[in-house]
Write a structure and sequence with these properties.
alpha+beta; nine-stranded mixed β-sheet; 5 helices; 9 strands; flat
């Protein structure tokens, strides 16, 4: 039962494929893979309760049509004389180009929970949405379920920004060249639709020292993403090795 009667009911749900024990093991394996973390992390990290949560997401569909124009630069080389030497000097031949790019964007995924750290959740993608089923409250048995706290219009602004950015990248590819300048892209969006769905995540935290670190496990694929402390001793050792290698290379070049 939604606490807000104006909430849009989920259209579909993606069932959990990994249980809590499996998610916990995925977390342990992830901890062991943090090679820049303190050596005692995997022994001392205290796992708080791990909860399976059906988290709210929106997906947006849109047709994008973009007109673009810009200059593509093509490198070529000329021979010039400098003192007693001749050297190759790079030049740029500029060519004005323009065109159009059209693409339909299907299921641009936006997390609709403002309580989850977006930088972590998006790294736990992808979800395989072809496994979605029609929403039925019985799927929620034994799990928590969160209502969306991000307004659908605000979600669309995030999705639109992704689409516009993708269009700019595609138009840049079409412009081509060794280098570019003055790329202008005008994107029009239409046929916009959206859906509300619940996707499976294990959400938890662990303690190391006096600090709490958050992480999530994709309840469909088992992908783990989260925060971990960094051992600055290890970082310093790596930097020291790099500095030593660079210094040794310079010495070899001098010889």
């Amino acid at each position: 039962q939604a606490s807000n009667p104006n909430m849009v009911r989920p259209e579909s749900v993606l069932p959990f494929e990994i249980n809590a024990d499996g998610a916990t093991q995925k977390f342990r394996n992830w901890l062991r893979s943090r090679w820049l973390a303190p050596g005692a992390l995997k022994k001392m990290a205290q796992l708080a309760k791990i909860d399976g949560v059906y988290e709210p997401f929106f997906t947006y569909d849109a047709q994008a049509d973009s007109d673009w124009a810009g200059e593509a630069g093509h490198y070529y080389y000329t021979t010039v004389r400098r003192g007693n030497q001749t050297v190759q000097q790079r030049q740029v031949r500029w060519e004005h180009r323009s065109g159009r790019h059209s693409q339909f964007y299907n299921d641009v995924l936006i997390c609709a929970s403002t309580g989850l750290p977006e930088r972590i959740v998006t790294k736990a993608y992808p979800f395989h949405l072809n496994a979605l089923v029609t929403y039925d409250p019985r799927f929620l048995a034994g799990f928590l379920a969160e209502e969306y706290s991000l307004d659908p219009k605000a979600g669309w602004e995030k999705a639109k920004a992704q689409v516009v950015d993708s269009e700019r990248k595609e138009c840049s590819k079409a412009l081509d060249g060794d280098t570019q300048r003055g790329l202008r892209v005008n994107t029009r969006l239409g046929a916009i639709t959206w859906k509300h769905m619940l996707l499976p995540l294990y959400v938890a935290a662990y303690m190391y020292g006096a600090k709490t670190y958050r992480f999530v496990v994709n309840g469909q694929t088992g992908e783990v993403q989260g925060e971990a402390p960094i051992s600055w001793i290890k970082v310093g050792a790596i930097v020291g090795v790099i500095v030593a290698v660079v210094a040794a290379t310079k010495l070899l070049n001098l010889w």
